[in-house]
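We were asked to recover a plausible sequence for a given structure. The inputs and outputs are reproduced exactly as logged, with field labels preserved.

PROBLEM: sequence recovery
POSITIONS: 315
GIVEN STRUCTURE:
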């Protein structure tokens, strides 16, 4: 969307014939090396994620007249865009024009959209339906059975059900309290961010709060005033969060019992790097050990990752 947060393409595996260890492949003489099955290194520097600029006009309909004057749905100047990508560690709030994200939005346009823009229009992903019969006191987690079939090492991508991105259950309050305690005890091991992740963190937080307000309006609301800006009202915890007074990851920490990892595209090489995260449930690692690493380096300990998954994940 505004700032590309890791986009992945479907991964499919191809079966391979098992070769005998006693003799070389029939197509090769014994003195020749067996060719590698790995694809050649790919250059992603000039490959960009899909743009959603065509949705800018619709998203601007909910903006004020002053904001609309700064927004345009005109075609992107490709030459200017390619030479004006925001540096990896740049803060969109202070970038001088021309400056663009890798999805083709200018820093001026992002600032004009302001806080809590219409992400449903910008992304093309509709908000969830109101869950009218939901009661937090009796809500149970939906069963998750990842190993119903024979296991194959793939990216395991499935189509997201819009209504079930963020699920709540009757342990909501205790889980939020537990996550807050983990942060108090471990700090940057569970929550941290690097320069340049400001927009990605803001986008994730705002999308999450918009989702909760649309899915569970009986418990969550967003209000706005000139004095405080946007305020998130949590009817379960009986709290109010002034979003502009708190880092987006801390807003999530206090209201959303889910883990978030923000992967951002580096314009210098086109690869994705772990730039910010709120992770309280990781096993064998923590935010501090992986922050700043490229996708392939994060997964280096995983057996067969390089041979079977690295190319598809990077692509």
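RECOVERED SEQUENCE:
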């Amino acid at each position: 969307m505004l700032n590309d947060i890791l986009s992945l393409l479907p991964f499919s595996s191809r079966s391979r014939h098992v070769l005998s260890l006693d003799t070389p492949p029939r197509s090769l003489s014994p003195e020749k090396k067996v060719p590698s099955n790995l694809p050649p290194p790919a250059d992603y520097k000039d490959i960009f994620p899909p743009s959603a600029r065509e949705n800018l006009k619709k998203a601007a309909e909910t903006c004020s007249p002053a904001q609309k004057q700064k927004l345009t749905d005109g075609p992107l100047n490709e030459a200017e865009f390619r030479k004006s990508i925001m540096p990896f560690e740049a803060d969109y709030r202070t970038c001088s024009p021309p400056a663009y994200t890798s999805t083709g939005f200018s820093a001026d346009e992002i600032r004009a959209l302001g806080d809590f823009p219409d992400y449903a229009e910008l992304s093309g992903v509709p908000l969830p339906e109101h869950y009218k019969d939901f009661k937090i006191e009796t809500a149970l987690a939906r069963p998750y059975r990842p190993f119903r079939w024979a296991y194959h090492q793939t990216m395991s991508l499935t189509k997201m059900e819009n209504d079930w991105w963020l699920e709540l259950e009757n342990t909501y309050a205790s889980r939020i309290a537990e996550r807050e305690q983990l942060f108090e005890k471990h700090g940057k091991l569970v929550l941290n961010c690097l320069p340049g992740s400001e927009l990605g963190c803001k986008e994730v937080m705002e999308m999450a709060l918009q989702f909760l307000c649309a899915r569970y309006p009986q418990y969550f609301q967003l209000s706005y005033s000139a004095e405080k800006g946007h305020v998130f009202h949590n009817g379960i915890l009986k709290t109010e969060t002034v979003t502009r007074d708190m880092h987006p990851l801390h807003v999530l920490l206090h209201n959303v019992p889910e883990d978030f990892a923000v992967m951002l595209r580096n314009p210098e090489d086109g690869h994705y790097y772990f730039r910010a995260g709120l992770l309280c449930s990781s096993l064998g690692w923590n935010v501090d050990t992986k922050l700043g690493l490229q996708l392939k380096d994060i997964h280096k300990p995983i057996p067969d990752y390089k041979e079977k998954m690295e190319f598809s994940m990077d692509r």
